[in-house]
Amino acid sequence: MTHFEKIAANLNGRGLDAMLITSEPGEFYAMGFHGEGAALVTPGKTWYYTDSRYIEAAQQIPGAEVIMWTTEHPFRKQIADLVKEHNIAKLGFEERYMSVASHTDWTREVEAEFVPASELLTQLRQVKDAEELAAMKEAQRITDEALLEMLNFLRPGLTESEVAARLTYIMARKGAERNSFDPIVACGPNGSKPHAIPGPAVIQKGQFVTMDFGCVVGGYCSDMTRTVAIGQPSEEMELVYNTVLRAQLAGIKAAHAGVTGREVHEAGAKVIADAGYGDYFGHGFGHSLGIEIHEDPGFHTRNDKPIPAGALLSAEPGIYIPGKFGVRIEDVIMLTEGGCVDITRSPKQLIIL
Hints:
Blueprint: H1 3-9, E1 18-21, H2 24-31, E2 38-41, E3 46-50, H3 55-58, E4 65-68, H4 75-85, E5 90-93, H5 100-109, E6 113-116, H6 118-126, H7 130-151, H8 160-173, E7 178-179, E8 184-187, E9 207-213, E10 215-217, E11 220-221, E12 224-230, H9 235-254, H10 261-274, E13 286-288, E14 295-299, E15 312-315, E16 318-321, E17 325-328, E18 331-336, E19 339-342
Parallel strand pairs: 1-5, 3-4, 5-6
Antiparallel strand pairs: 1-2, 2-3, 7-10, 8-9, 9-12, 10-11, 13-14, 15-18, 16-17, 18-19
């Protein structure tokens, strides 16, 4: 079943006559293409509108009638005509992505009840099919290989920015389409900032260096974090590192289809709290990823819903001690009925360079 067909099959259950897809991730999920247009999905047919910049490439889209819009025949007007022609009364839209201004324009031109329906796509995107999984595994393979190459490059005297730039270069050279997000590289005291921005800080002996990075292959993301020591770490640094590793392993052990995000988070957080570092772990245990680097569902205290088999989430606990250092270890796991599969292959034991 194609993604278009999956969307169409879920319309009736949500009381919708059609689904309007206008966001970049929504378009890409539905048809593997994004051309700054709009798709209208009904139980019987799908139409996709784009302009002259993308029309040739859009002809590859299977299962949709591709139509070029022009200034004289804008896509909102053409979709409004379709809505009227097919008696569409309840039209789902992506409220998570559509701006207020755009919503105003759509509702002014299209005579239908606009029903918030982002969750329709969000739920479908939770479970990855074989093609999506293959793309994510390939992105992760490139990410793993980039780390191994970086281990031969890291040394005292480099700046965080140089390391980030090198990561981007290596992944591109190995076939990545782009970064999943701007790499996070933090050395020494900067490591206590979970989303530190690489800057001019110079790596020195005796410091931790945290690298959080990933790439996109086939439109799907990878994500990984490793913290390595430059020179011999202190006893406290080793203790913190091993605590984070035990926390990650505990969360991974608790992960399986049907578990809630809260349960997995608490399994990892308990290890950190029991070691006396509970105040230094403030974010969730992990997040889903795919077309976007942050998707639903998540491993966090607010998620009490069962997570389905086939969902891929990060497992990334951390300890962040202001003014001193931070440690985070991150893998991506796929939930199965009997547990989970870790698609990350990089070593997790403390690496000392």
